[in-house]
């Protein structure tokens, strides 16, 4: 802080000096050359450096500066730009104006076709933008390094707000990645372990990925262990077509047909490459656990998610499925051995596109499923969606295989205040495993609407009706007309494996209804309703799942009620569960209101109770909260009672650390106890070494701040730079600006940084680098003397070993950061050998731990 004050004082004095030197001409017949008498600053003119460089009012030297660029009050990005001296500028600009070249004009989004005179200038020449485009203004604030352009709208290209030119998209650096998640449970009678690995290589725009899982289980002295390769694929962006190419194992989209797995090739339009476009929605898996339970989610036969939850209603909104679509099969394994199974539909909202937008998806390959009871026939699929005027969208497609042919056509319409709707019909001809041939149609209706005025959101409301002869491509791949799929690693006391799913092709799908509605109730909380029902030909049974919930709060107290009902064809039993949860902050009793400054204020008293259709009930009460300065350690301790297991208890904690996340839990009751844990994280190998991190996202940012160890990243819980100054910020947003900022309050006394903010625009799957210029060394305020006098005010100072520069202030004081413990300073106050001197210095080792070090040196010629 003293150094910053010193630098500010020097800057202020020089600014006043520059204004004085740039005074007006008083004679109407001519102007003499401006001259400033150094005696105004000191009685001894020799104690002031040669300040002739300020006589023209140029307060800052021309050169390249890293600035934040704004256009019409919209942030464009951060870039190194050359600046040249200018006579008529705002005082805040420091006498500088940017050199605008063709590349910068392109980045600003100027319509060159409307101004041919812009293209007549060579790329390297500075273009006078304010004269070439009338009405343009350029403002530069040197103190904040903010460069603002005000350009008339008529001169801009017709790009959507938020448009980022593809030239700014960053394919990232060559890198090797490993993302891991290891969970386990050790109980009184059985053990189970689950490992998920997602590894990959990045080179230029190419992404190579492999996803695999390992399962181990021990039950009644029986042990089973197996590895399953979920998928291997290569992917890259095709920027001119705004699309993605995938080669290998992947899944088709579900805009028109149901999503299926394949091994082959897919080329499809990428919504994320378009500004402000619909990104679709990620599935939110809701449910209710009567006891501390394990939640397993499968998609297309593969386990894509596994975690442990406490009793009560839960919502999983961070799911990263193997497919961009496809129904999710949810299993809730209760602590007492009972299970809930239901399916969460994962479909898209009505297929509306902007006028003129064409969205395509082409696939060719072998059908692929994690179910060993299905064949792998070759198939091809193509779909297209076209946006027309007046809010109309037309779409269609086909699926072709040896035993299957399907054609679909449909249309969508924006109904304005009435929401959005789409309607399509699919005609299919199928040959099943028993060589029977069938032909039929399926009609699908989708609707979405947000009633913001009333706080209502119909996220998805849909219905599909299929005739008796309609089958899907997935149906034709079964090896048998009916059968069960079992989970060999989960068995009951008699060694019988649990049932995962059931299929019966004689009971083909008939009607399917799905809904997801939420309603805000103002100060009284919110209400939601989600569910689906699938009916079949030949039976009155249905696959049904519904959940109704209510939540609210008052003065920091939160409460919720939830009710769930589910049933599946072919799997006996019906689950109906109701639950109640209450959370009361301890700060309510300490009269600190909504403050969460201490660990006690961040603690909550909790109560949970549940009851199912079999009359089983349970309740728990406990304490939960967060610990540590970064609030990255959460905990929960409960004690309760169950009608089936008597007394129960649990304790759990989750730590978001720098190099990964660790979760641990312990549960017990009258008959058994078990211990579970989950360890997850990522590893990134790059040109500068290996960096460990929290779990990686699909797209990530590698932070490079050499030597700046232990520095926190803003808005990233638990993320800090390692001992070398590297860190990984996971889950970057593709084709959008991602702000990466170092928290300067967490820097050590020996660390300074030129600019703590960087902005990157990654492409899909990239590892982009955000580099920061750091100064690692001593912060020092040095008083330099030449003979008995301080060195001249305003002299230029340069440390000869690392190149740090500064300027001499009052009484020969010099502030420098990033200094080595030993070195030499070159001080210049004019031209020639007689206007400079050198000063050697030697600082103690403890200077590296001090906020600022004060010392004196002698400057000799």
UniProtKB/TrEMBL annotation:
UniProt source species: Trabulsiella guamensis ATCC 49490
InterPro entries in alphabetical order: Fimb_usher, Fimbrial_membr_usher_CS, FimD_plug_dom, PapC-like_C, PapC-like_C_sf, PapC_N, PapC_N_sf
Residues in PapC N-terminal domain copies: 35-183
Family of this protein: Belongs to the fimbrial export usher family.
UniProt-annotated location(s): Cell outer membrane
The protein, known as: Outer membrane usher protein
Gene that produces this protein: fimD
Span of the signal peptide: 1-32
PROSITE patterns xrefs: FIMBRIAL_USHER
Keyword annotations from UniProtKB, A to Z: Cell outer membrane, Fimbrium biogenesis, Membrane, Signal, Transmembrane, Transmembrane beta strand, Transport
GO CC terms: cell outer membrane
Lineage, broadest ranks: Bacteria, Pseudomonadati, Pseudomonadota, Gammaproteobacteria, Enterobacterales
Gene Ontology terms: biological process: pilus assembly
UniProt-listed Pfam families: PapC_C, PapC_N, Usher
PANTHER family: OUTER MEMBRANE USHER PROTEIN, OUTER MEMBRANE USHER PROTEIN SFMD
Database matches in SUPFAM superfamilies: FimD N-terminal domain-like
């Amino acid at each position: 802080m003293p150094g910053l004050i010193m630098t500010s004082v020097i800057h202020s004095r020089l600014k006043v000096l520059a204004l004085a030197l740039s005074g007006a001409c008083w004679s109407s017949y001519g102007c003499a050359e401006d001259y400033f008498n150094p005696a105004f600053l000191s009685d001894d003119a020799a104690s002031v450096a040669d300040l002739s460089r300020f006589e023209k009012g140029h307060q800052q030297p021309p050169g390249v500066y890293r600035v934040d660029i704004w256009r019409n009050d919209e942030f464009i990005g951060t870039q190194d730009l050359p600046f040249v001296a200018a006579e008529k500028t705002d005082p805040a600009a420091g006498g500088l104006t940017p050199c605008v070249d063709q590349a910068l004009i392109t980045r600003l989004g100027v319509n060159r076709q409307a101004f041919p005179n812009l293209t007549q200038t060579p790329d390297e020449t500075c273009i006078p933008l304010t004269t070439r485009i009338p009405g343009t203004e350029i403002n530069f604030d040197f103190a904040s390094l903010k460069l603002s352009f005000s350009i008339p709208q008529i001169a801009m290209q017709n790009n959507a707000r938020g448009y980022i030119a593809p030239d700014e998209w960053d394919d990232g650096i060559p890198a090797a990645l490993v993302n891991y998640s290891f969970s386990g449970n050790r109980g009184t009678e059985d053990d189970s372990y689950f490992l998920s690995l997602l590894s990959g290589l990045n080179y230029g725009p190419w992404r190579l990925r492999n996803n695999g899982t390992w399962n181990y289980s021990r039950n009644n002295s029986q042990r089973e262990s197996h590895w399953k390769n979920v998928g291997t694929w290569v992917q890259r962006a095709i920027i001119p077509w705004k699309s993605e190419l995938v080669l290998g194992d992947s899944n088709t989209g579900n805009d028109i047909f149901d999503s299926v797995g394949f091994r082959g090739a897919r080329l499809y339009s990428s919504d994320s490459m378009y500004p402000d476009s619909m990104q679709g929605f990620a599935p939110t898996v809701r449910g209710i656990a009567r006891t501390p339970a394990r939640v397993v989610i499968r998609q297309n036969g593969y386990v894509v998610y596994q975690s442990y939850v406490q009793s009560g209603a839960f919502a999983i909104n961070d799911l990263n499925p193997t497919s961009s679509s496809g129904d999710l099969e949810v299993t809730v394994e209760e602590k007492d051995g009972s299970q809930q199974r239901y399916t969460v539909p994962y479909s898209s909202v009505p297929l509306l596109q902007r006028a003129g937008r064409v969205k395509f998806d082409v696939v060719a390959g072998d059908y692929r499923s994690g179910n060993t009871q299905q064949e792998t026939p070759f198939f091809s699929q193509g779909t297209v969606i076209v946006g027309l005027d007046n809010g109309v969208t037309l779409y269609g497609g086909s699926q072709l295989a040896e035993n299957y042919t399907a054609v679909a056509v449909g249309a969508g319409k924006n109904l304005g205040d009435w929401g959005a709707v789409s309607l399509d019909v699919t005609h299919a001809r199928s040959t099943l495993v028993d060589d029977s041939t069938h032909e039929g149609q399926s009609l699908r209706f989708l609707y979405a609407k947000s009633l913001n005025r009333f706080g209502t959101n119909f996220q998805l409301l849909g219905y599909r009706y299929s005739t008796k002869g309609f089958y899907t491509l997935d149906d034709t791949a079964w090896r048998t007309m009916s059968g069960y799929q079992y989970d060999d690693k989960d068995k009951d006391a008699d060694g019988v494996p649990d049932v995962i799913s059931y299929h019966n092709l004689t009971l083909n799908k008939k009607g399917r209804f799905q809904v997801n509605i939420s309603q805000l109730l103002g100060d009284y909380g919110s209400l939601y309703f989600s569910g689906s029902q699938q009916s079949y030909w030949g039976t009155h049974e249905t696959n049904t799942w519904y959940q109704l919930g209510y939540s609210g709060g008052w003065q920091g107290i939160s409460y919720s009620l939830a009710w769930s009902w589910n049933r599946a064809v072919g799997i006996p039993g019906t689950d109906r569960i109701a639950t109640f949860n209450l959370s009361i902050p301890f700060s309510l009793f300490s009269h600190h209101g909504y403050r969460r400054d201490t660990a006690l204020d961040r603690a909550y008293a909790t109560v949970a109770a549940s009851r199912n259709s079999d009359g089983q009930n349970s309740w728990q009460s406990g304490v939960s909260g967060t610990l540590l300065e970064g609030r990255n350690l959460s905990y929960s301790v409960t004690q309760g009672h169950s009608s089936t297991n008597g007394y129960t208890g649990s304790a759990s904690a989750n730590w978001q650390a720098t190099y990964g996340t660790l979760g641990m839990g312990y549960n017990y009751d009258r008959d058994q106890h078990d211990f579970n844990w989950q360890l997850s994280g990522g590893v990134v190998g790059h040109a500068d070494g290996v960096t460990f991190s929290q779990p990686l996202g699909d797209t990530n940012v590698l932070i490079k701040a050499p030597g700046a160890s232990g520095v926190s990243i803003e808005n990233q819980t638990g993320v800090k730079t390692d001992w070398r100054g590297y860190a990984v910020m996971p889950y970057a947003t593709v084709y959008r600006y991602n702000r990466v900022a170092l928290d300067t309050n967490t820097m050590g006394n020996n660390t300074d940084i030129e600019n703590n903010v960087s902005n990157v625009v990654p492409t899909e799957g990239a590892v982009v680098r955000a580099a920061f210029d750091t100064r690692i060394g001593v912060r020092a305020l040095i008083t330099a003397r030449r003979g008995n006098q301080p060195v001249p005010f305003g002299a230029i100072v340069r440390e000869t070993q690392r190149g740090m520069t500064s300027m001499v202030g009052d009484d020969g004081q010099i502030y420098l950061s990033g200094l080595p413990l030993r070195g030499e300073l070159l001080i210049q106050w004019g031209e020639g050998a007689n206007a400079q001197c050198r000063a050697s210095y030697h600082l103690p080792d403890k200077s590296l731990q001090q906020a600022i070090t004060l010392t004196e040196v002698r400057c000799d010629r």
